[in-house]
Structure to design on (248 residues):
């Protein structure tokens, strides 16, 4: 699902579901589009298509619930991911300003090469979108049980998306700041380590945000973009929801 107003992106969502759940899912996506805090859309596009490639089933990243303010931990997280903290923080600031060349929100993610800081996404206005994402009912049950009162559908969607991104070789990490003005929670995730859930990552009321995928220079951009767009990825287990950082 993709909704927009006067051509500007408002919100998007997707899922891999079995046939019996198609109508229910389409209904929930339309509802989501119409209740977006970013405004009432003048266009909602929905596409339903059969999964054409054999899905990859993979464990989701573990989630670390970070109680410290982002300003205290982000630099350390960037270091763990081998992203120079000053570069990581400069892209964090860019997301808060609006990362497209016109200062608007992008539909997709930036791809940033480390250590050069060069932006590799072919379209700097749109960025790159990851698609073909799903979660098994078993993994969803584990996530709901382990996250308990901290579970939200947004957490589920973001965790599946970033687990797919982080499964690709030469990805170092991914930073996400929501563009929803009343949603200030985001994350930084690091392959094989985890999803660090960060609170108060932006000022309340700000309609800016985005995603940055940090990669090293061995990454082949066209193959990575094809993987993000076209290879079905289904999370099939969830390791745990933790309150202690794994490296302190
Ligand atoms: P959200 O977490 O939905 O508020 O999205 C935050 C930002 O992440 C958006 O402004 C987009 O730039 C980017 N984004 C959202 N969905 C995707 C996706 N499926 N793939 C890549 N980037 C995305």
């Amino acid at each position: 699902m993709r909704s927009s107003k006067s051509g500007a992106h408002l919100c998007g969502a997707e899922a891999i579901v079995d046939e019996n759940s198609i109508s229910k899912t389409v209904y929930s996506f339309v509802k989501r589009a119409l209740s977006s805090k970013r405004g009432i859309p003048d266009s909602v596009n929905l596409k339903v298509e059969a999964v054409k490639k054999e899905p990859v089933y993979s464990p989701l990243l573990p989630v670390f619930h970070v109680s410290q303010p982002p300003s205290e931990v982000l630099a350390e997280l960037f270091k763990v991911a081998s992203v120079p903290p000053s570069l990581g923080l400069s892209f964090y600031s860019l997301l808060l300003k609006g990362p497209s060349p016109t200062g608007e929100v992008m539909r997709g993610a930036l791809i940033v090469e480390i250590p050069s800081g060069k932006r590799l996404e072919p379209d700097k206005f749109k960025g790159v979108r990851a698609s073909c994402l799903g979660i098994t009912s078993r993994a969803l049950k584990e996530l709901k049980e382990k996250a308990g009162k901290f579970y939200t559908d947004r957490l589920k969607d973001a965790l599946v998306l970033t687990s797919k991104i982080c499964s690709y070789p030469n990805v170092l990490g991914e930073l996400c700041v929501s563009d929803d003005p009343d949603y200030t929670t985001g994350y930084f995730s690091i392959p094989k380590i985890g999803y660090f859930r960060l609170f108060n990552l932006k000022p309340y009321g700000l309609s800016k945000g985005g995603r940055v995928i940090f990669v090293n220079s061995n990454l082949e951009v066209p193959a990575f973009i094809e993987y993000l767009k076209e290879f079905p990825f289904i999370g099939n287990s969830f390791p745990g929801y933790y309150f202690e950082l794994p490296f302190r």
